[in-house]
Structure formats: structure tokens, C-alpha cells
Design a protein that fits this description.
The complex is a heterodimer. Chain A is an alpha+beta fold. Chain A contains 13 helices and twelve strands. In chain A, the strands form two sheets. A six-stranded antiparallel sheet of chain A has the order 2-1-12-11-10-9. In chain A, strands 3-4-5-6-7-8 form a six-stranded antiparallel sheet, with no helix packed on it. In chain A, strand 4 and strand 5 form a beta hairpin. The longest helix of chain A has 39 residues. Chain B is flat and about 85 Å long. By secondary structure, chain B is an all-alpha fold. Chain B folds into two domains: 54 residues; 216 residues, Orthogonal Bundle (MetI-like fold), CATH 1.10.3720. Helix content of chain B is 82%, strand content 0%. The chains are: A alpha+beta, B mainly alpha. At the A-B interface, helix 1, helix 2, helix 3, helix 6 and helix 8 of A face helix 1, helix 2, helix 3, helix 4 and helix 5 of B.
Amino acid sequence: MATTITPPIPDEIDRLFRRKRLMSLGLPALVFAYLVVVVFALGIPEALDRAKWKNASILMSDAISYKTILERQNRGGAVAVSIENEKSGTYGENNWPSWIQKDGDIIDVSLQENITVSINEDIVTLDVPEYGVIRTEISRRGLKTDYPDDADLPLWVNASKTRFTAVLPGGRLTITKSKTSVFRYAAGWELFFFTMDSPYYGKSNGEIIGMMFGVGEAADGQSHFLAIVNDVWNNKIWHHNKVAWAIGETVLMAFLGTVLSAIIALPLAFLAAINFSPAKTVRFGVRRLFDFLRGVDHLVWTIILSRAFGPGPMTGALAMLITDIGSFGKMFSEALENVDNKQIDGVESTGAKGIEKYRFGVIPQVMPVFLSQVLYYLESNTRSATVIGAIVGAGIGLLLTQAIITQKNWEEVTYYLVLIVLMVMVMDYVSGKIRGWLIHGSD
Amino acid sequence: MTSNSNIVLTGYIAEVTRRRLYNGISLALFVVILASGFAVAEDRNAGGFLAGLTSLGDFPAIVLKESWTKIDEFPAHFITYFPALMETLNIAAVSTLIGAIIGVFLSFAATRGLAHYPAAIPYIRRLMDVMRAIPDVVIALILIFVFAGGVIPAIIAISFHTAGALGKLFSEVNENADLKPLDGLASTGATWTQKMMFGVVPQVLPNFVSYALLRLEINIRASAILGFVGAGGIGYELRNTMTWGQGKYDNAMAIFILLFGTIILVDQLSSMLRNRLTGKQ
């Protein structure tokens, strides 16, 4: 029974093992070598040197916190307290937050860790318990600052004759000849629902819900419910109405692009399907047209169409429409080539002709496939509509690029991102549900 | 008998009429929604549809005309823009690699039977949904604030999106993997990493590579678009020549040809490779 192993087999096994070992070690090594080469070819070390890490921390903290600003005009002496310098986020003269105390001309601001700033007209004293008192006097000639000891300045202070800055825990003090300002940071997105000019500002959630569904009227005789909805909808800082419009515009672009392209692609697909096409040349021509529409990128169509139609949502929808005619045309014609001829024969035997034959013999067979592809594209086009919107200037993509370009409204950028993610997830869910319903029958 | 069939017939006709009525109403409703939606979009657009339609060919005509008169400069342009093209391709390749590596780990963590912490599966899946939902252009635009342009925002943005997208596809592949080799390995005392390495990876690798190649095709396009918004590569050159306008349209055309020629070439190569990997000749 025992078969003698002929010599070539161990050799071959050895060879295979060697090859395998080489592959399993060599391939990762090759990938690693490529990464190392590319890091230098793309100039990544230099790019990392150029990076402004301070901007990263500004971005992060601004995305999830807001600052309240107390600002004194040193010429004239006017004092204003506001949130993020917003007009509709300015506190009334008598409604300053409790951490600002006004006593005659002296304004006392308390920050975290028992740090206080006291502004007495042109004399600003900063009291840091662990360090001491820094006193700055503002005059027409410049700033004069006294420190508790004449040793080195602490790292958190940056001072010159024209500008004094102290970066404090949870806040910041800046003094120039024209302005004295104190920032105090707090977590969250302030004024998200009500701006300060709304009568509902500062009320607790329970109170608001109670007022919405309780009795009583707002000042102008409107019901509380409408007044509350109106104040939130027309919020002057977060612009919820504009944002809702933008999301709607983005979905509209995706909807128009997808549905119109499907409608246009359907008759063309018949011309491109081998079993329905009137002539070989027609089929060849239509198929090359599909390839062309699909192959030229979104980006190119967007550029060409922007020149003709100008910026806006219609341009975005048309850019999607053109590419999708190509994709749908190809997929539809493939589905049409797979139809069962028996059904068509059956319909034909009842005397159906021309359009009736297609309507009752072909369409019912391919409709579920078509619709599920259309729904899938609707969902993926919602994703692309954000990006196309950024290029053609429409929808949430436009708002997002505008907010990013200001380089300071990072909380708005975060808000829009959350909305985009929700929008895509909702579209994903809805289209998945409808697709499941189409495939598994209506129940 | 006849009266019976009459009842059936009238019932059938009533049913058909009702159905036609409903179909007609929903079709009309659909057309109204579509038409009014289009009207809204046109209303909010800078230029109208019909006016734009007549001038659709103007811009391509200008570009083609200028390119034709300077056709002899094209070889020089190709050489000029070749490094930028390589940059775009490298961004795409590196991002696909990084994204695929992260995606492999995410996919194992998100597959029942393979995950180290099964309780975390739903969270990992939601995380991948979010990673896929955020457009790469948006991440790149935000990162430009920190990195001041260049290739890093593009690499991070595309890798992030790719990790989410490939993680999902990979985990679908994992779900079809045979779990018996895992039991065998477990009986020899293999750790989780060893079980994945020797039990799962050999089964799923061809599909993983095939999906990664498909993603590479998508990422080359994404990398070109990211350049267009300011993150380096040939897209950046394209935007510069486009905004320059008349006088540099030949450069723009050369970049078009270079970029889309490459895209088609890579698409063909990768689809050949993918067919071989998944056993479809």
C-alpha cells in the first residue's frame, strides 16, 4: 500500500512553499515600500511642517462651543455683551449674564478657576490666583502693563505696546488702544432655537413645551404654538428656514436628475436591446451614446452645463441627468435583453400590437428591476448632490462651502454635516424599504 | 349561467376601471410633482432651461476651436501636466490602500461570528454609515483650513470615505465566509488575529482585492475632483486653466485628454484584473 514518494513532489512542495512565503512576505513589503516612496514623492513631510495645528484646535473647539464676548470701546466707553458678536445675540443692558457684575463704572468679569478681570474705564486688572495681578493702563500713547514680579512673562501672555493678550482657561482677554474684550467659552450651540430678541429666550424646555400645548396667547394675539414655531423657524443666527430649503433643494436635485433620466433612458434602452432594436446600426449608435454619457465624468458635465445654464439647482440636476441616462440606459437594456419571450407571445396571441405588446408583455417583467435600480440611484445621487451643489452653487453644498470659507463658523459646518448624514441615512432607509416592498410584494 | 358570467364581467370591468382611475390619478400626481419640482429648480437657477439649451454647445465649441488651432502644442502640454497626473494617481492609490487596510479591520469588527466584541457590531456599522455619508469633498475642504491645501487633506478625506465604503462591502463578503476553518484553528489554540489571518483572509482575499480595485477607479475620479476644489493634483491645474479662460483652453483640453484617457485605461485594466480574480473570464 505504501507508495514511494517520487523525488519531484517534495521538490515541488518546497518550491510552492517558497513561493507562498515570498508572496506573503514580499507583497506587504512591496506595499510598504510604495507607501514610503510616495510619502516623499508627494512631499508629505513638508506639508506637515506647513500645517497650522492651532487652526485644528480652533476648529474643534469652535465646532462644539460658543463664546460670549464682552467688549468695551475704549474711545467713548460703550460696553456691549453678546454671543459670538451676533446682533440678535446681544444681551440687553440689564440682562447681562451673572458672571458679569457692573458696579458704577467698574465691570467685574469672573472666569474659570477664580480668575477675575476688572475693567475700570482705562485701567484693566487681571487677577490670576496662582500668579498674581496684572494691571494694564490704556492711554493715548499705548498700553502700559505692570506685572507682579519683573521676571519672565508667563507663556499665556503676549504683550506689546499696542496689544495685550492673555489666553486663560475657558476664556481670553484682549486689550488694544481702541477695544478691551473678554471672551468666555461655554460648551454647546447657543441660541439654536431662540435668539435673544425672542420672548421665549431663556425659558426651560419644560416651560416651552407647556406653553406650546397650554392655554394663553403670545403678545400679538397669536397662539404660543405658532409664535414658538415661527421664532425657531426664522432664527436669525442659525437660519433654520434657509437650511431646510437647502436640504429640500439637494433632495430635489437628486430626485429630478434620477427620475427624468430614467424616463428618458427607458425608450432609448429599447433601441439598445438586441431583441427590440430596429437595426444593428441603431443599437450600436445608442450603446456608444450611453458609453459616452457615462464615461465623461460628472465634473465635466457640471462645468459645461454651468457655462450654459448658470449656477443653480437645475444645472446640478441636469448634470446628474446626463450621466445617469448613460448608466440607466445600459442597465435597462441589459434587463430588456433578459426578458422572457413567452409572455410577449401570450400577449400577442390576444391580438395586441405595437405599443400594447410592450406595455403588457415587457414592462410588467422589467418594472421591478427598473424601479429598484432607480431607487438605488436616487439614494446614491443624494450623496453626490451635496458635492455637485458645492460646484454649481445650490442646496446644502452651497451653504456648507460658504460656511467653510468664512473659516470661523465651524459650528454651522458641524450642523450641516449632521444634517447631511441624517439626510443620506433617511434616503437610504426609505429607498431600502421601498425596494424591499417591491421585491417581496406588497404587504 | 349567462347572468353569472355577466356579474363576473361587470365586476371585472368595474375593477379594471377603478384600477385605471387610481393609476391615472397617481400618474397625474407624479407628473405634477415632477413638473413643479423642475419649475422650482429652474426658478432658483441663474439661467433658464430653454435659453441655456440653445447655448449648450457654445462653450465646448470655443474650447475645441482653440485646441485645434494649437494642436501642435499638445505633446508639450502632456509632458507639463504629467507630474500633476502622477500626483492625482498617487493620492488615489495611497488613499485606497489606507482606506482598505482600515476597512478590513472595520469589516471584521462588524461581522457576526468574527467580531472580537460582538456587542460593538451595531455601533461599528453606524460608524461606517456615517463615514460613507459624509462626502469626501467636505472633509477635504475642512482640512484645507488646517493643512493649507496640498495633498494631505485629499488623502485623509478619500481614505476616510473609502474605509467606510469598503468596510461595508468587506463585511458583506465576510458574512459569506465559511466559519469551519475558524473552529479548526481555535482547536489548535490560535488567537483572534491568527484565526482571522489564516482562517478568513484566504477565503475573502480575492473579493477584497476586487472591491478595492473598483474603489481605486472611483477614487481616481474623486482625487481629480478634490484637486478642483484646491487639494492639489491635476484637478487643481484643470481649475486654474479653466478660470484663466480664453488663451489656456488648449491646456484645459490637454488635461482633459490626459485625465480621462488615464481613467479609461485604469478602468479597463482593473476590470480585467477583477474578472480574473473573481473567476469570470
